[in-house]
Specification:
Shape: globular
Strand order of the largest sheet: 1-2
CATH class of the largest domain: Mainly Alpha
Number of domains: 2
Largest sheet: 2 strands, antiparallel
Order of helices and strands: HHHHHHHHEEHHHHHHHH
CATH superfamily of the largest domain: Farnesyl Diphosphate Synthase
CATH architecture of the largest domain: Orthogonal Bundle
Helix content: 55-70%
Number of helices: 16
Radius of gyration: 22 Å
């Protein structure tokens, strides 16, 4: 593939993106699993079209990080050897078992390495158990599936340790999402998440949830260090997580600032900017980019091309999520939809307010959007406006 002319590669990439754009409405009908498979397949195809010599740099002499080399020693052996064998035929169960191992190894040594009393150690265990589980795990599983496809295209079968490495990185994304959700729920005063009461609403938690979100974020980097510090691509992983986290926090700021804006500012362009940074980078680009790094992809054009397609998919995903917030039941959604109450710049609102609503409907939105309670007549009327405009 390294000798394929640049124009041919660009043409194949353009065709992929054109097909995706032309079939936007059809994509909306796909179930989640089918859509995830499409994401993995398309992104991997695009990335592989740019792969040349992916042997990567030679492994340098290991850096020992002397400034932090005290009680919390880095493992000198492959700690994944003690994990259960990864069974591809029962991928969800195997993936979940890796999470159990990570929780245990991240917390069992805290009394000796960080002098945490048993109460605080148990708090972290309980916090992890409550917040990192219960999701669909699509982002994490996407890392494993993308890595498998790339490795097989390189002419090698993934080893058991390859699968465990990919699963560890998959859980790093799931933990990244968990801390974002813990913080997001607190800032939005949400009630439920994944079918259970939000973490900050639990008895005895309240403002401690803010610190718990920070803990979750830092645990991601501890996992990366424990499992990948000997790998030549370790700093690439750290750099990617740091950049993606910053992008996501910028997206969160764009979202939160909507409380200080007028409804006229809730344009489709602003909505697209919010979802690109708040959702698309970490939910779609990050999983595939991690798999590319682990499998030795070094070509910048491969990452650029994959990013372009994956961000487009992430924007579609958030449009679907905005729709579900308004029209899915709490049982289907796993939470109570609050976009109308929270004055969110959603896909539904941007289209209704700026492109399709009557003067009467716009006046009603001006009066009640972001000011009505969940389940109120005003909220239902706003949903009726969406329905009348054909947005349901």
């Amino acid at each position: 593939m390294a000798n394929v002319p640049v124009l041919l590669r660009l043409a194949s990439t353009t065709c992929c993106l054109a097909v995706l754009a032309a079939n936007y409405n059809w994509l909306a009908t796909l179930p989640t699993n089918a859509f995830t498979s499409l994401v993995v397949s398309l992104a991997t195809l695009i990335a592989l079209s740019f792969i040349g010599d992916n042997s990567g740099p030679k492994q340098p002499e290991l850096h020992r990080y002397p400034a932090t080399d005290w009680k919390a020693k880095l493992p000198e052996r492959n700690i994944r050897e003690g994990y259960p064998k990864y069974n591809e035929k029962d991928a969800v169960k195997s993936f979940t078992s890796v999470c159990e191992c990570l929780i245990r190894e991240c917390t069992e040594s805290l009394p000796s390495t960080h002098e945490l009393p048993q109460m605080e150690q148990k708090w972290i265990v309980d916090m992890l158990e409550y917040n990192v589980k219960g999701g669909k795990m699509n982002r994490g599983l996407m890392v494993v599936e993308s890595g498998k496809v790339i490795m097989k295209s390189q002419g090698r079968e993934p080893t058991d340790d390859d699968l465990k490495k990919l699963a560890v990185l998959g859980w790093c994304i799931e933990w990244l999402q968990a801390w974002l959700l813990v913080a997001d729920d607190f800032m939005d005063s949400s009630e439920t998440r994944r079918g259970q009461v939000c973490w900050y609403k639990k008895e005895g938690v309240d403002e401690i949830a803010i610190n718990d979100a920070f803990l979750l974020e830092m645990l991601v980097f501890r996992v990366l260090k424990r499992h990948f510090w000997t790998e030549p691509y370790y700093m690439d992983l750290v750099d990617l997580f740091m950049e993606t986290t910053f992008q996501t926090e910028c997206g969160q700021l764009l979202d939160l600032q909507c409380k200080n804006l007028g409804l006229a500012d809730f344009t489709y362009k602003r909505w697209e900017l919010i979802v690109k940074y708040k959702t698309a980078f970490y939910s779609f680009y990050l999983p595939v980019a991690l798999a590319m790094l682990v499998t030795g992809v070094r070509d910048k054009k491969a990452f650029d091309t994959a990013r372009e397609a994956l961000l487009l998919m992430g924007i579609y995903f958030q449009a679907q999520d905005d729709y579900l917030d308004a029209f899915a039941s709490p049982e289907e959604l796993g939470k109570v939809g609050t976009d109308i109450q929270d004055k969110k710049c959603s896909w539904l609102f941007a289209h209704a307010y700026h492109e399709q609503s009557t003067p009467e409907a716009k006046s009603f939105l001006d009066e009640h959007y972001g000011k009505c309670e969940v389940g109120s007549e005003e909220e239902e009327k706003i949903k009726d406006i969406y329905r009348e405009l054909g947005l349901q």
